[in-house]
Amino acid sequence: MSTRLFVSYTLRDNILNKEKLSVFKNALSKLHFLTTYIDILDNKNTASPQDEVINRLIDADVVWLIKSSAEFFKSEWVKREIEIANEYKKSIYEIGVDFVDSIIQAKSEDALLNIVNTYLDCVTSETISVFNQNNTAFSIA
Predict the structure, then answer these.
(1) What does pTM read for this prediction?
(2) Could you tell me which of 19, 35, 61, 93 has the fewest CB atoms within 10 Å of its CB?
């Protein structure tokens, strides 16, 4: 059975873009046990795109938050996605652009697996559930 991955991101800081996210998703597709959803690439529901995002998040097994900058946590959609992920008790991992770049640069499936396993073994899977007055998220241990 495939693990359903939901990727949360923002483009507002101009660090990530559609092309980089596409290359990232393509690299992850080499991991056949992983099905990745990235809204800007996968949301074809023109009738209700917001509902599609929410439904995909609810159906996900794992959520990766690509923290590209401090702007990430200022996005209203990011905040909403984190709230929904917490409500549905999803495993949430905060990743950085360096992790995205490592995935993109991996030369083989074994290299990808090593990067993912090494990185995820080093981070907590505790959910991010609290925002302070400045809308800065922090982890609850």
Answers:
(1) 0.84
(2) 19
